[in-house]
Write a structure and sequence with these properties.
globular; four-stranded parallel β-sheet; 10 helices; Rossmann fold; alpha/beta
Length: 233
């Protein structure tokens, strides 16, 4: 059974500071395997839920090699450079990630990778795993910008206008992914924060995971989620 799922990961992406960790954590709680993931930080107190080796040894080095910010901020990647990469490179990328999952303990069932930067390089991931199910995490633009401006590691831009352009580029990538026919679910975590878990439950069910209301409800912590009161950031 495990071999059946290895080519069909769950890929979670979205703008940084949108709630990707909240969604990935919920997926993990409901049974998807993520390997050795980044834990809690000052800005993600429930955990990052991003595989350490994939982000640090695959994604960031590739961005650096191509001349882009490894944090996915400034400069942003030219998505066209990830299109039509060689079949050999795509196969190696996929094989390395699958081997990593096995090495880190994958046995069977669904597995996932969460990475905000993944949408900035989506053609490579899509070519590698064409049967993947994607989750795009969404949040109000002004709330994203406000979070970026109070988060120390979000340092690519100095003002509202800079971050607005950055968010707009992510939204362009989301539209491209829809237009390309990827298997996408969109999730707005604010709804779960507000107490309505219906959308999140629907996505978990569509991913064929085991919805656990009590554990997910306990995991979601509204006090860690801030709305932007000043609509200009």
């Amino acid at each position: 059974m495990g071999e059946d799922y290895l080519e069909k990961p769950i890929l979670v992406t979205g703008c940084a500071r949108s709630g990707t960790s909240l969604v990935a954590g919920s997926i993990n709680i409901c049974g998807a395997f993520g390997g050795d993931m980044r834990g809690a930080t000052r800005y993600n107190k429930k955990g990052m839920y991003e595989n350490k080796i994939i982000v640090n040894e695959y994604v960031k080095p590739l961005f650096r090699k191509m001349g882009y910010d490894p944090l996915g901020q400034n400069p942003l990647p030219d998505v066209n450079r990830f299109k039509n990469m060689s079949g050999i490179y795509i196969k190696r990328w996929g094989n390395n990630i699958i081997k990593l999952m096995k090495r880190e303990g994958y046995k069977d069932g669904k597995w996932f990778y969460k990475g905000a930067k993944m949408c900035l390089m989506w053609p490579l991931w899509h070519d590698t795993f064409p049967d993947a199910k994607w989750i795009i995490v969404r949040r109000e633009v002004n709330d994203i910008i406000a979070s970026c401006m109070r988060t120390a590691f979000m340092r690519g831009y100095k003002n509202y206008a800079g971050w607005l352009g950055w968010v707009s580029q992510h939204e362009n990538r989301f539209q491209e992914m829809h237009d390309a026919g990827l298997k996408i679910f969109e999730v707005w975590p604010q709804r779960a924060i507000n107490g309505d878990l219906t959308e999140l439950q629907g996505v978990i069910n569509n991913l064929e995971l085991n919805w656990d209301y009590d554990k997910v409800r306990e995991f979601i912590t509204p006090s860690l989620w801030h709305r932007n009161k000043d609509r200009r950031g």
